[in-house]
Amino acid sequence: MKKGTWRKQHKWLGIGLSFFMLMFCVSGILLNHRSLIKDVNVSRKYLPSRYEFQKWNGGLLRGTLDIGKDLMVDSMRNVDSCRQLLLYGNGGIWLTDSKASYFKDFNEGLPEGADYRQIKNVIRLDNGRIFAVSPFWFYRYGVHNKWHEVNMSLEDEEKFTDIASHGDTLVVLSRSFVYTSLPPYKTFKRIQLHAPKNYDGKVTAFRTVWMLHCGELFGIVGKLVVDAIAIILVLLCVTGIVFWLRPKRKVLLKHSLHLHDKIGRYTIILTLLIALTGWCLRPPVMIALALNKIPALPGTTLRSENPWNDKLRMVRYDESCHDWLLSTSEGFYSLNLEKATVKAISSAPPVSVMGLNVLQKDAKGRWLCGSFSGLFVWDRQQKTATDYFTGKAAPMKAGAPFGKKAIAGMSQDFSTPVIAKYYEGSNFASQPASMNQLPMSLWNVALEVHSGRFFIGSIATYIFIFVMGILALWCLWSGYRIKLKNKIHCTKSNS
Fold first, then answer.
1. How many CB atoms lie within 10 A of CB 22?
2. Which of 178, 92, 90, 185 is nearest to 130 (CA)?
3. 2-11, 76-85, 453-462, 472-481: the lowest-pLDDT one
4. How far apart are CA 406 and CA 353, in angstroms?
5. How far is CA 457 from the centre of its chain?
6. Sign (positive/negative) of CA torsion 222, 226, 227, 232?
């Protein structure tokens, strides 16, 4: 290809991509440091209208907890005699009744940060004590009729995923460990689960590529290196735009071109690597990576002494089987909590790579398993799994991250079962207008920008990053080819 053709391609691709590349870089840096920005909220009124909560969508309804009629607190006075429910999800916790006749704010004591109010689960123990968990905090309802933080010692960057109970035993699940506590629930025992049978230490190729893309593969040093690459890409965009605009000041023009050329040539391997790994983290490549495992790279954070590092998702006690049912990124397991051992369960239904959102029993004692891959009815004893809506046998694999029915939450505490889909929500009751513009965390906004959904909606999951990744790779490579052509030309001239 001629030098002029390379130059034209580089110029127009760079101009077209510069805005999106700047957005990717800034959002990527924010995503890399969630703990630093978890207190920062963004009002939904400043976001596209599709980000408003409507009809209980977007995970606003994840589940409910029946608290009966006997829990009398100030916010519950002067209500009717129906069973009282706590409705929870990505907007916090709300008090309602079994008729959904009203919805009252039940978030007093919770931090204002939206990340803190992404409630994963709320449970009530046999002794009446109520606990709730979000990714960053674990809460207890009590004194002065409000929520209080329960102090627990976690590993750095470790996040909560679920809570459950059996008898007077309280179980708190993080992404890597199981924590147990007994009355008065002041201290917690951390349990590291043993490796499952035939454990080979392999990890999914998707997880390897994802951790390489964000730098977490090499700890905080890796994250800082990736941050630096993002800044380099910002400089390439800025200097490229300045050169394209052709400022009257020749010194500025010369320096912009020199800087653009130097930075681009010396960092081409790093910038291509970031673009390539980012491109791989969305379909269709993502699906192939998620289905294949590779050995954990030596000297990286993937080589953990904990075989369950960052793999634990949900836990429930199964009265029928007299064991703990554990959902992980590796599938379902039967957990013996006393021995900290697990046994794989082969009859389980498929779960989206995004993880479970629903795990509860129906009236017949069967498990309802809901994720972005759909909702399935699982009979552990009969070893059968069927689609909740069609009654057909569940597929063997989950397939795409988002199925035809992306299940975000479910409740069986109203007159009829309520199923909340991520995009469509549910029509079981009118959503209060006050919930429409509940704040979104800055980290989640950054995620929407980085994934492309902020610009074109959910279709970005399948198209936007795939196309943008290819264009970005070609833009970087065409710039490098221009310099190669210059070197070849100079060599020929000298000879």
1. 16
2. 185
3. 76-85
4. 12
5. 17
6. positive
Q: Is 291 domain-assigned?
A: yes
Q: For residue 153, count other CB atoms closer than 10 A to its CB.
A: 8
Confidence of residue 341 (pLDDT cuts 50, 70, 90): very high
Backbone angles phi, psi at 278, to 5 degrees: -65, -40
Mean pLDDT of 258-285: 92
345 closest CA partner among 330, 362, 361, 357: 330
Find, among 360, 470, 468, 460, the residue nearest to 402 by Cα.
Answer: 460
Longest dimension (CA), the chain: 96
User: Do residues 280 and 292 make contact, with C-beta atoms less than 8 angstroms apart?
Assistant: no
Name the one residue in this structure whose structure tokens are 């965009």: 237
Say how far apart CA 281 and CA 287 lie, in whole Å: 9
Sheet holding 169-174, edge to edge: 160-166, 169-174, 178-181, 189-191
| Per-position b or e across 245-254, b if 16+ CB within 10 A of its CB | eeeeeeeeee
**30 occurs within a structural domain:** yes
Confidence category of residue 400, pLDDT binned at 50, 70, 90? low
Closest to 67 measured CA to CA, from 114, 118, 132, 115: 132
Rounded Cα–Cα distance for residues 427 and 448 (Å): 26
DSSP for residue 418 = E
CB 18 within 8 A of CB 241: yes
Residue 9 lies in a domain: yes
Q: How far is CA 94 from the centre of its chain?
A: 23
CA angle 196, 200, 201 (to 5 degrees): 95
Closest CA to 469 of 272, 218, 307: 272
Q: Closest Cα to residue 195, out of 291, 292, 311? A: 311
In sequence order, the β-bridge partners of residue 359 are: 369
Angle of helix 219-245 versus helix 205-214 axis, rounded to 10: 60
Contact 435, 60 (CB under 8 A): yes
Q: Which of 232, 295, 290, 227 is nearest to 260 (CA)?
A: 232
Confidence of residue 495 (pLDDT cuts 50, 70, 90): very low
Three-state DSSP state, 346 = coil
Q: Which domain holds residue 237?
A: 3-38+220-303+461-494
Classify residue 7: in a domain, yes or no.
yes
Is the peptide bond between 284 and the residue preceding it cis, with omega within 30 degrees of 0? yes
3 state DSSP class of 158:
coil
Domain count, the chain: 1
CB pairs under 8 A, 24+ apart, for 138-144? 138/163, 138/172, 139/109, 139/110, 140/185, 144/109
Q: What is the pLDDT of residues 77-136, one digit of tens each?
A: 444 568 999 999 999 999 999 999 999 999 999 999 999 999 999 999 988 999 999 999
